């Protein structure tokens, strides 16, 4: 039996904004069915890493490999871009992102929000997309909100709609960027429950979070980023129970 390549593999990734080096050689993998949490102080490069991963940001050096398929680049290390727009689209549609601020389209109903990308990007059949959109909205507990607009929902409901929207793309992995940070604590729990259910189902997920309890509960693997480098990574028990790095100990004891 041949071993399945990881869904996401990042090798020695470097990313700078002008003179500011944000990622200084990051390597990590997300095997199929695993949940990886990314933790670290504000400004450590977590969002940038996620955005480089689905090619929303360019990077200067290193490899991004999806299911064994490396991204091909053109240009040189100082000015490289993905070479193949079809590959970019394929990767992006296979890695659905959920943002801190939900990013729902205000002028569309919840159902339209969930159906939009499968219809326009994947050009799937409308009746089929509507059926699966309704099923995903049911799954996240807001099946009764199909016909309302985002502004009529609580933050927790909006974020669950955003998760349904991501799922409706049938992606290979979900990328979450601080999915609960904009929510009041009681609304946070509804979103955490959905994320936990997805983890139990064996979804491949990369989750940037400030919520150490969430990271400890759902992750197979936790990555601690410090100033653009992985300072420590490992199983949650080890990382939270017996952190080796002084910086990680400091980060955890600072109440994160
Ligand atoms: P985190 O998500 O861990 O808080 P970010 O990845 O957002 O960190 O940011 C890492 C660093 O990159 C920060 O110093 C931030 O100011 C900088 N940065 C992020 N986005 C941009 C951008 N578009 N242009 C310039 N600098 C940026
Ligand atoms: Mg961030």
TrEMBL record:
Protein source organism: Sulfitobacter marinus
Subcellular location: Cell membrane
Subcellular location, principal: membrane
All copies of domain ABC transporter, residue ranges: 8-252
Topology of the protein relative to the lipid bilayer: Peripheral membrane protein
Family annotation (InterPro entries): AAA+_ATPase (IPR003593), ABC_ATPase_HisP-typ (IPR030679), ABC_transporter-like_ATP-bd (IPR003439), ABC_transporter-like_CS (IPR017871), MetN_ABC_transporter-like (IPR050086), P-loop_NTPase (IPR027417)
The keyword Nucleotide-binding is assigned to this record: yes
Source taxon at top rank: Bacteria
GO CC terms: plasma membrane
Keywords: ATP-binding, Cell membrane, Membrane, Nucleotide-binding, Transport
Record GO terms (molecular function): ABC-type amino acid transporter activity; ATP binding; ATP hydrolysis activity
Protein name: Amino acid ABC transporter ATP-binding protein, PAAT family
């Amino acid at each position: 039996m041949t071993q399945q390549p990881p869904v996401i593999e990042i090798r020695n990734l470097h990313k700078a904004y002008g003179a500011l080096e944000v990622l200084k050689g990051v390597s990590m993998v997300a095997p199929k069915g695993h949940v990886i949490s990314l933790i670290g102080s504000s400004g450590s490069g977590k969002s940038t890493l996620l955005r480089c991963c689905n090619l929303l940001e360019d990077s200067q050096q290193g490899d991004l490999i999806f299911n064994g398929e490396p991204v091909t680049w053109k240009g040189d290390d100082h000015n490289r871009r993905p070479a193949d727009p079809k590959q970019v689209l394929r990767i992006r549609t296979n890695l659905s992102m959920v943002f801190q601020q939900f990013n729902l389209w205000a002028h569309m109903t919840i159902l339209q929000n969930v159906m939009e990308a499968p219809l326009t990007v994947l050009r799937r059949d409308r009746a089929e997309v509507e059926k699966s959109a309704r099923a995903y909205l049911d799954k996240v507990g807001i099946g009764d909100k199909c016909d309302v607009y985002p502004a009529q929902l609580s933050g927790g409901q909006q974020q669950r709609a955003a998760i349904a929207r991501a799922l409706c793309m049938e992606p290979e992995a979900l990328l979450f960027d601080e999915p609960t940070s904009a929510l009041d604590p009681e609304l946070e729990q509804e979103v955490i429950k959905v994320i936990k259910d997805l983890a139990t189902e064996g979804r491949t997920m990369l989750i940037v979070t400030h919520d150490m309890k969430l990271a400890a509960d759902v992750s197979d693997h936790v990555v601690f980023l410090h100033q653009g480098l992985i300072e420590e990574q490992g199983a949650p028990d080890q990382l939270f129970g017996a952190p080796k790095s002084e910086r990680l100990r400091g980060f955890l004891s600072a109440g994160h």
